[in-house]
Amino acid sequence: EEPSMAGSGWVLCLAVLVGSACGKQILYQPDASETFVAHKELPFTVQYADANAIEAITCVDYVQLGEYKARVPFGCFLRASTPELSSVDGVAGFGIPKMGANGEMLPMPLLWALTDPRNVESNAQALSRRFTFFSSRDSAELQLGGYDPESVVGGQMHMTKSLTPGEFVIGVSSMRIGRSPDKAVEILRFKETKDTLGAKLAAEYEHKKPKVLPAVLDTGTSCLVLPSNDHGGLLEAAPFQQFVKHFQYPPPQFSA
């Protein structure tokens, strides 16, 4: 089943990568578990876009979230090139993992492992593979299986289905920048005439009303990454250059 998200939020509150080297764990102590297994023969390396990397091994143990419990695989953190990871209990991932830096297979995300119909040691097979983040400056909550209507003003949220099965990708049709909604400038300007596009590209986007660009929602990215080209002629101008042109200080508000 393809991943889907309800709502928006950017703080993770479950530990999936467990630090087994820093000795600062609070919620989980591998040495205290009689069912913990560390597969040292299954190491992997995760390489990030900023050149930092995590070295880990695949481990297995029981994980319980409320009423749901299962024996699942997860990554045990050994060492990292960035000091920020030494002060956290773990990193929760919900996208389908790619191969490691050296072609290794990585453990599937916790939600997928909990709901795996082949996992006879799980009672969460009926749980929907949907999740919601709620976050503030000082706290956060993760809801699995969808969302709790009592957590939402008005009791309703709109679900956005990912455009791809491996990453959380949504279609963006507009992005504006400005100090107020009425003065905001559109920086994602699509060309209106098919004549300016190649025949193949025009046919590909003809059925999309409105036209959209795919955007990856990545909680590990601390900034807004904009295209630096016209997307093969689909746009009138590169969004990043338009952002630089219309950026004002102090930073304006964004609307998308």
Q: What would you say about this model in short?
A:
This protein is mainly β and 256 residues long. It has helices spanning 110-114, 199-206, 239-246, and strands at residues 4-6, 18-19, 37-47, 53-65, 68-80, 130-135, 140-144, 159-161, 169-172, 176-178, 185-186, 213-216, 253-255.
List the helices and strands and how they pair.
Blueprint: E1 4-6, E2 18-19, E3 37-47, E4 53-65, E5 68-80, H1 110-114, E6 130-135, E7 140-144, E8 159-161, E9 169-172, E10 176-178, E11 185-186, H2 199-206, E12 213-216, H3 239-246, E13 253-255
Parallel strand pairs: 1-6, 2-5
Antiparallel strand pairs: 1-8, 3-4, 4-5, 6-7, 9-12, 10-11, 10-13
Detailed description of the structure:
- The protein is mainly β.
- It is 8% helix and 28% strand.
- It is built from three helices and 13 strands; from the N terminus they run βββββαββββββαβαβ.
- It has helices spanning 110-114, 199-206, 239-246, and strands at 4-6, 18-19, 37-47, 53-65, 68-80, 130-135, 140-144, 159-161, 169-172, 176-178, 185-186, 213-216, 253-255.
- A hairpin with a 4-residue loop joins β6 and β7.
- It starts with a strand and ends with a strand.
- Residues 1-25 have low confidence and may be disordered.
> Which word captures the global form?
globular
Number of strands: 13
Give the radius of gyration. 21 Å
Specify the biggest β-sheet. Answer: 4 strands, mixed
Give the percentage of residues in beta strands.
25-35%
Helix segment tally? 3
Order of helices and strands: EEEEEHEEEEEEHEHE
- Separation, N- and C-terminal Cα atoms: 28 Å
* Strand line-up across the major sheet: 7-6-1-8
Tell me the helix content: under 10%
* Structural class based on helices, strands and sheet pairing: mainly beta
Mean pLDDT equals 76
The poorly predicted ranges are: 1-25
